[in-house]
Request: fold
Amino acid sequence: MKRERITLSSTHVDLHGMKMSKEALEDAAKIVNSDRNPRLGLEHDMSYPPLGRITDAEVIKGQDGEYYLVGYREYFDERKQTKLEDNSLLYIEYFKNGGKPFTEGKPEMVDKIQISADPVNFENMEEMESLVEEIHEASELEFSKQHLLRKSHIPDPEMVIKLTGILAVGIGIIASKVTEKTGEAIGDDVAKFYKLVRASVVGMVQRAIPKLRPITFIFEIHEEQIIVELLIKSNNPDFVVGAFNKDKVDTIKQKVESSKDIFGAEKIQFMYNENEKWELTYMLTENGATIGTKKSFDRRDVAFQELVNKMIERNNNTDNGSS
Reply:
């Protein structure tokens, strides 16, 4: 297994003028060392399956007097093939020595819609607050707002919207459940949800930076035993709203149930493709494995190699400049 010791964070002021406290680093170390591991991701892009996991974190004091959160990134060391019930081919990446489930695979029950965005994708906090207000006025839906902290230098714009289970039932993403709301009330919420989605896309296109970059929208549904993640990359409000047509989301419901039973999936992601269909990308299992399509793994591996090449080129330029 490939294993590398890295610095995860520190008490230095970062590119966005933010500074982590020693206590915050210690809390982060506890999360890494808990019964779940954070993913080893790629460029903060959730459409890529994980490369592995982060383990064995500790906080140390550097010679400069600052504190550093260090840990190990470990890459999957095994891959095999499997199939879905419809005979479509999937790959499983896992660790020979077994693994813990991923941190992100633990559901958090949501009783109100949550909308999250990264402050660095806006000129200032006022712009972000104005977007939130626009979404509220357009949809008339109650929601809470959160901040995404991706610790990257002006990453592509992204918005995460967590849905309640009742709303997910109304849209048709998950199976029906007992609810105190009437069908008419749920239908009203669904109509407001479509308005929320449209306002979110329009607002992000107008206000988010960097401009003219693809915007990622992630819709999450947290059930008792599984998280469903729906990912759309688009700047077109009609395209994003159209993704939630009942006929289109029906295939999601079927695959969620079978993936949970057959593979022990804790989290399953679907991406809305250029053919206007939801396609499975990957799922995370209760034993820390990743199961995904060849297409999703190929996309990740190409992006990873491009990143490695950029780092090699940057190092070569630095060496040539200092000689």
